[in-house]
Amino acid sequence: MDGTGWKDFETLESYIAKEQSLHPQSRGVFSNLLRRIGLASKIILSKAQRAGLAGVLGSFGRENIQGEQQQKLDVLANEVLKDTFRWMDSVAGMASEEEENMIQLPPRASGENRYLVLFDPLDGSSNIDANVSVGTIFSIHRMLSSDGSARLEDFLQVGTKQVAAGYVIYGSSTMFVYTTGNGVHGFTLDPMIGEYVLSHENIRIPDVCKCFSANDSNYHIWDEPTKRFADIVRYSRSGRYAKTTSRYIGSMVADLHRNLLYGGVFMYPADTATGKGKLRLLYEASPMAFIFEQAGGAASDGSRRILDIEPTGLHQRVPLIIGNKEEVELYERLKRGESA
Ligand code: AHG
Ligand code: MN
Ligand code: MN
Known about the structure:
Elements: H1 12-21, H2 29-49, H3 51-54, E1 59-63, E2 69-71, H4 72-86, E3 91-96, E4 103-104, E5 115-123, E6 134-142, H5 152-155, E7 162-170, E8 174-179, E9 184-190, E10 195-200, E11 211-213, H6 224-235, E12 245-246, H7 252-262, E13 264-268, E14 279-280, H8 281-294, E15 298-300, E16 317-318, E17 320-323, H9 325-335
């Protein structure tokens, strides 16, 4: 600041370039991929912001592979992302929550198609019509094979193998938050210049359990350890939980973004009737687990670290508990039948 109000700033572009310059052998392929996700998110934002005017609110009238109603904006965001990656030499394939099958891109002569992108194009889409925050989640893996042809096993890699993960939250401001395994960094979109500007460098989750986030109407289908956990965190009016408050938006990106900044725990446990969780391992749980671990937190399915789970299918669902380490460990202890 020089008295004029001017303050130099770092954009997503310059930050990525700087990170890349730490790896002199890098040819910038991966950085370009991250930049393009930033661009895609601005296109999605432009559609979402005019949704009520442009007639793109409401249901698309079709179900996705998971049997969920697709919203028009789900389909639109999915198309934007597919078109973003389709022509990139660095991308060998994609997988999306809104697509039944993986999308294989033809091997390129350049031999540079080394990456796979997996995404939840629009998270929290059932909230769109009410103008509630939604998001985009992405996860990037390197191909296992070197011949440039993406196979199912390339997509079904454990979360620890992610080379990057992130989300964009379309809220009262728009933020791009990502990690490449070197901390978690957040950028806020400055609408006046159309750029993401570094606003939250090296985010660390505060070690306080300020927020408890779960869909409480599912209490009756939770198992006993899960009910006990919820009761401890919500109702102990002393010690660590004296000031814990319940906060649940119903958009995972928004719930987790808030908890990442304030401290807390989010859970979407298994339904005792089906034994299954709701959230998808590859598009939701795994990228968010990478981010939370990088920010000092933890993520588990109740007995296993999310990032260690070997995926068995593209659309696999897992129970998820994610947030501060202390709460995730408490939940795992209760699930093992140990005392709190
Ligand atoms: P999506 O909109 O991508 O299908 O994800 C919805 C998810 C997630 O955003 C949220 O945490 C959860 O569903 C909410 O589910 P409930 O409505 O069952 O609470
Ligand atoms: Mn989602
Ligand atoms: Mn979605």
